[in-house]
Amino acid sequence: MNNYFLLLNITSVYLTNSIFVTFLTIIFFISGLTDIALAISISQSFLACVTYTLSSHSRSLIVSDSNMYKLLSEYFFRIKVVGIFLLVILILYYFNFYKIENKFLIFVIIAISLLQWIYELNIAKGEIKKDYKFILSVNSFLILIFLIFCTICILDQYSYYIILLLILLIFLLIQVIKSSLVAIFIKDKMIFKLKNVINDKSTISSFFIYFSNFIWKILIALYTEKNFAISVFIVHSFSTFVSSTYTNSFGYTFLKNNKKIIVFLFTYFTFTSIIIFNTNLILKYFPNNITLIDNPISFFQELIIYCMVGSNFLLLGQYFRSKNIFFFPQYRKHIFSADIIFSILILFYISVIVFFMDIVLIKYLFLISSITNYFIYYYYWSLKKN
Q1: pLDDT band with cut points at 50, 70 and 90 for residue 76
Q2: Are both 194 and 207 inside the same structural domain?
Q3: For residues 151 and 24, is the Cβ–Cβ distance under 8 A?
Q4: Same domain for 9 and 128?
Q5: Residues 364 and 384 sit within 8 Å (Cβ to Cβ)
Q6: Do the Cβ atoms of 42 and 236 come closer than 8 Å?
């Protein structure tokens, strides 16, 4: 296979695996199921806070080092974490601690999200072993699921969502169970793994990053209207999914294969430019009856434009961050400190807007945060390069 096709295939499979829940949030939002979309968005932020904190940057480092033993150890650790997580959620649901509708649907989506967290290691294993047929087959299946969801959405046949979700859940469950038969022979104890995770500075940085994301969503949900909150979440999620997937998944694949990222950056810039000049096609999905703001359509149009511009700065910032971690492993602790600084600044920005200023200014939050992200990581890169 052509090297660029292989790289595109690997990039695509990480992307489709990691953004699926974000994609679901957008699909449910477009379908008018805003309550479910809001529940998914907040639940996913909490899950990311837990899972990505515990796994930190392990997948990227495993691929970077091509360490199969560490991959199997990480696999078994994630299985145990997911098992405990799902058990707790089932108990809470059984005793009706959460008085929400569509519990079963949301539980299935949570289970899929957790299984995909494990399954990214299956993809990492395929990448390390250069099993490109496996990666192509998984990528094709996930893209097919995406396309079927889009078709169901276009045809307004929303009742079929749960059937498709169950098919994906069963697929992931079978794949994880098959792979776990090898991982169970790893003798690492969970308590030792947790101690190592807690003592790792990258874990603290990951926690701050995802905790700040979770907290700002909680603040927006508590202090604004439901329709306003989910609309802002959708735009922000859409703006971050490429950069976050680059950081957590395929970014190190680019660096490891010595591929120039300029084509990828230009493609993404073109994509965001198209959205900016065609916001009218998107605005029909946003509510126009928000009491907090005088002109909701104008607000959401500006929000989309500022977020699309900001997403380019964010992607550039994450590019320099990944180069720092990959090329200067001895300075990784400095980058993890920068993560904490950036997360604290995010919480500061959102707190000032929510508690001391007009909520309308939230439209500038993503752009300001993204520019901050870019300058922090570019500054560290320039120091190391010199």
Answers
A1: confident
A2: no
A3: no
A4: yes
A5: no
A6: no
pLDDT for res 193: 61
In terms of domains, do 317 and 233 share one? Answer: yes
| pLDDT tens digits, one per residue of 180-198 | 776 566 656 656 566 666 6
Range with the poorest average pLDDT among 77-86, 192-201, 283-292: 192-201
Q: Does 250 share its domain with 375?
A: yes
- How many domains, in total, are found in the chain? 2
Instruction: Average the pLDDT over 289-311 and give the result.
Output: 90
CA gap 269, 377 in Å, rounded: 19
248 and 334 housed in the same domain: yes
3-state DSSP of the chain: CCHHHHHHHHHHHHHHHHCHHHHHHHHHHHCCCHHHHHHHHHHHHHHHHHHHHHHCCHHHHHHHHCCHHHHHHHHHHHHHHHHHHHHHHHHHHHCCCCCCCCHHHHHHHHHHHHHHHHHHHHHHHHHHCCCHHHHHHHHHHHHHHHHHHHHHHHCCCHHHHHHHHHHHHHHHHHHHHHHHHHHCCCCCCHHHHHHHHHHCHHHHHHHHHHHHHHHHHHHHHHHCCHHHHHHHHHHHHHHHHHHHHHHHHHHHHHHHCCCCCHHHHHHHHHHHHHHHCCCHHHHCCCCCCCCCCCCHHHHHHHHHHHHHHHHHHHHHHHHHHHHHHHHCHHHHHHHHHHHHHHHHHHHHHHHHHHHHCCHHHHHHHHHHHHHHHHHHHHHHHHHHHC
CA distance 377 to 345: 14
Residue 348 in this model has a pLDDT that exceeds 90:
yes
Same domain, yes or no: 231 and 195: no
Task: Specify whether 268 is located in the same domain as 283.
Answer: yes
* Domain stops at, among 199, 234, 258: 199
Contacts of 380 (CB under 8 A, 6+ apart): 320, 321, 324, 331, 334, 335, 338
Residues 123-180 pLDDT 10s: 888 888 888 888 889 989 999 999 999 999 999 888 899 999 999 999 999 998 888 7
Chain mean pLDDT for the chain: 84
Task: Note whether 293 and 299 are within 8 A (CB).
Answer: yes
Answer yes or no: pTM beyond 0.85: no
Claim to verify: residue 142 and residue 231 sit in the same structural domain = no
